[in-house]
Design a protein that fits this description.
Blueprint lengths: L6 H10 L3 E5 L10 E5 L10 E4 L3 H5 L10 E5 L4 E5 L11 E3 L13 E4 L4 E4 L3 E4 H11 L3 E5 L10 E10 L2 E5 L6 E5 L4 E5 L11 E3 L13 E4 L4 E4 L3 E4 H10 L3 E5 L10 E5 L10 E3 L5 E5 L4 E5 L11 E4 L13 E3 L4 E3 L4 E4 H10 L4 E4 L8 E5 L10 E3 L1 H6 L2
Length: 407
């Protein structure tokens, strides 16, 4: 008569095994085995087993019960191998994938899993079984800390921006959040696609844009994003999702703020302060006026920098333009041509400068202090130039010394 397994030993075996495993990298005949697995409450053939589970907090909130997958990871005592099986628990030697290694738990397997294709068996080096903790750390470490979405104009253009990776996984993948807008990029396991969602992190299949690409993170997808345009979801061939570190140099080299000056008459509202955008437009930085809808944007097709009073777009229309292939508009050395009701006219007086360059230029042409000789005591005195500008002009403030001595 065989030895009876002590219940205490059973409990020790269960406790020693991680509660959750993640199977990833599956493809072909076993692609549906990907996902989260929960440890069984008992042993199977003297070892722990794991059953695929579905996690959906949205369904839980609605009181819905989701049917877990039939896939299991189990031990086969006779063959002494770990088995990934789509038919649930059994003592059969049949398998969808197997690892010929006698270890206590399936996440300790170090040899390649052998996958049955329906005709033959082949090793799959991409298929991994890991503890949920190990998997989470690996996925977050491998994914870029930030991604930049750019190129969308018109409906749902709010999708553009810089997104930061979350500190945990969502449906077994990294997710990204735009802290300024609340938009997220999240994985939807059921349909194996990335969703761009204005409604923050959730588990629903509804979103503003879709990316059908089964990749560890959205920045390495090679397919285009489909975006809802107000009536239907259409492919956007211009929209890009890129790791921030790849394009970080573009942002670093461009000034954070610039000043446009020198335009008088028609389109003089282009003058003023502009802030650097948080994403790229047609592969270059853009600038947005701090108080108006004006932008300075790159138009790739004609290699032009454009001033546009209507905001970002991919259209060739503009209020001012220059043809010069440089990284940002402050590097332009050619003369800007400005629309003057009937035609574009070269306007040498228009300057586009970084705020620092603009300020230094004004300071260079203005004295550090001035003296006002006035019969009114409150006005009479010495005025010293302030360190910064006010309304893009130098500003002088009366000194206490001048007031006390009645200069």
């Amino acid at each position: 008569m065989g030895a009876v397994l002590n219940p205490i030993n059973t409990e020790e075996i269960l406790v020693a095994a991680p509660n959750l495993l993640v199977l990833s990298g599956a493809s072909g005949s076993v692609k549906d085995s990907d996902g989260l697995y929960e440890r069984g409450a008992t042993l199977h053939e003297k070892r722990v087993y794991y059953k695929q589970i579905q996690v959906n907090t949205h369904a839980q909130k609605l009181g819905l019960q989701l049917e877990d997958g039939s896939w299991v990871i189990r031990w086969n005592l006779k063959k002494k191998w770990w088995v990934i099986d789509s038919e649930g628990l059994s003592n059969k030697e049949n398998f969808n994938a197997a690892a010929d290694q006698e270890v206590d738990h399936p996440h300790l397997v170090t040899v390649p899993w052998k996958v049955w294709s329906g005709k033959d068996v082949a090793e799959d080096n991409d298929l991994k079984v890991e503890s949920a903790e190990t998997y989470e750390k690996r996925m977050i470490a491998q994914a870029p800390p930030k991604v930049v979405v750019s190129g969308r104009s018109g409906f749902n253009s709010e999708i553009n921006g810089t997104y930061t990776a979350g500190s945990f996984l969502h449906e077994c993948r990294v997710f990204y959040e735009n802290a300024h807008t609340g938009w997220v990029i999240r994985w939807f396991q059921r349909d194996r696609m990335w969703l761009f969602d204005a409604d923050e992190l959730n588990d629903t299949p509804h979103a503003n844009a879709e990316l059908f690409s089964d990749t560890p993170d959205p920045s390495i997808a090679t397919t285009n994003v489909y975006v809802f345009d107000g009536s239907e979801t259409l492919e956007d061939k211009i929209l890009k999702v890129e790791p921030f570190n790849v394009i970080e140099g573009v942002f670093i080299q461009a000034p954070d703020e610039l000043v446009v000056s020198g335009r008088v008459g028609y389109n003089s509202s282009m003058n003023g302060n502009y802030k650097l955008g948080k994403f790229l437009h047609e592969g270059r930085v853009f600038y947005k006026h701090t108080s108006r809808n004006w932008v300075i944007r790159w138009y790739e097709r004609r290699k032009q920098w454009l001033f546009d009073c209507n905001g970002l777009s991919h259209k060739p229309m503009s209020n001012a333009q220059v043809v010069e292939d440089v990284g940002d508009p402050t590097r332009v050395t050619s003369v800007w041509s400005v629309w003057d009701r009937s035609q574009f006219l070269p306007t040498p007086s228009v300057r586009v400068e970084s705020y620092k360059v603009y300020r230094n230029r004004l300071f260079h042409h203005s004295p550090e202090s001035i003296f006002l000789d006035c019969n009114i005591a409150m006005i009479h005195g010495i005025y010293v130039r302030e360190r910064d500008l006010r309304d893009n002009n130098v500003y002088y403030k009366k000194t206490i010394r001048g007031a006390l001595h009645g200069v």
